[in-house]
Amino acid sequence: MNFIKIILTSIGSLMVLFFSTKVIGNKQMSELSMFDYINGITIGSIAAEMATSLDGEFYYPLLAIVMYTIIIWFISYISEKSLKYRRFFTGRSIMLVENGKFYPKNFRTAKIDINDFLVQCRLNGFFNTNDIHSAILEENGKISFLPKAYARPVNTQDLNLAVNDDAARHTVILDGQIMFENLKYTGNNKQWLEKELQKQKVGNIQDVFLAECDADNVLYIYRKTEDAPKNDPFQ
After folding, report:
1. Is the dihedral of CA 19, 21, 23, 25 positive or negative?
2. Would you state the pLDDT for residue 157?
3. How far apart are alpha carbons 93 and 102 in whole angstroms?
4. Per-residue confidence at 193, pLDDT binned at 50, 70, 90?
5. Which phi and psi angles does 72 have, rounded to 5°?
6. Tens of pLDDT along 136-189?
7. CA 71 to mean position of chain CA atoms
8. How far is CA 87 from the centre of its chain?
9. Quick check: 191 and 172 in contact, CB under 8 A?
10. Full DSSP string of 156-224
């Protein structure tokens, strides 16, 4: 009798996990933040307890999964609407290296040992740190690398071409909100930003999904749109 019950509760826990995932949203492991990772482990543990519950009170772990799902969905919703809460729950990217300069303070903040960083460099094909222009620790724990111009896949040095190093673009508008620190870092202010928006016929900052400023002080704007392709191009 217990075997039948375990089979039924296992099927039930899988169904609950399936619907919980649909509500929370699908993410690959490489895209999970620390908060998402911890919640995934917790919900999985509760589902496992539900599947093997023999005392007849399987609805307790079921209620716990439902409550976790609701709370996580709510946190995801407010994080999407507020940059402040998004940074609080998911963190923010940290500049580890910029223009070949290492920032030990940011390494300590990110709790990354220099040896671990060098391992990541080698895994990404950088056996010479001098080839790295910038390195950024992303919210999901991955490190993004921007190689120097001569160290790119098509090596301009081998072609005897003189090129300038590209710097990473700075995000100045994110989901309708001005990133004032980044804007100041680019040497610009809100008045400059508004003029640039007017030049590109953007009347409201809330209409901007993403805006980036490059090293040449050129503003790249990506507007918000409700249009989205419904087809899957890969299936």
Report:
1. negative
2. 66
3. 15
4. very high
5. -65, -40
6. 888 777 899 999 877 777 766 666 766 666 667 888 998 888 989 989 999 999
7. 20
8. 11
9. no
10. TTTTT---PPPPPPEEEEETTEE-HHHHHHTT--HHHHHHHHHHTT---GGGEEEEEE-TT--EEEEE-
Q: Are 145 and 124 in contact (CB under 8 A)?
A: yes
d(CA 203, CA 85): 27
Match 């400023």 to its residue by tokens.
213
Query: Residue ranges of the alpha helices (H) in the chain?
Result: 2-24, 34-51, 59-81, 83-90, 104-110, 114-123, 180-185, 190-199
DSSP H/E element including 137: strand 132-137
Q: Which two tokens stand for residue 74?
A: 């709510």
Name the band, by pLDDT with cuts 50, 70 and 90, for residue 99. Answer: confident
Contacts of 200 (CB under 8 A, 6+ apart): 219, 221
What is the rounded distance in angstroms from the CA atom of residue 93 to the CA atom of residue 145? 13
Helix (H) / strand (E) containing 101: strand 101-102
Phi, psi of 138 (to 5 degrees): -85, 170
Q: Is-above-0.90 flag for pTM?
A: no
Structure tokens given for 61? 């772990």
Q: How is the beta sheet containing 177-178 ordered, strand by strand?
A: 177-178, 170-174, 208-213, 219-223
Decide if pLDDT at 58 tops 90: no
Which residue shows structure tokens 């303070």?
105
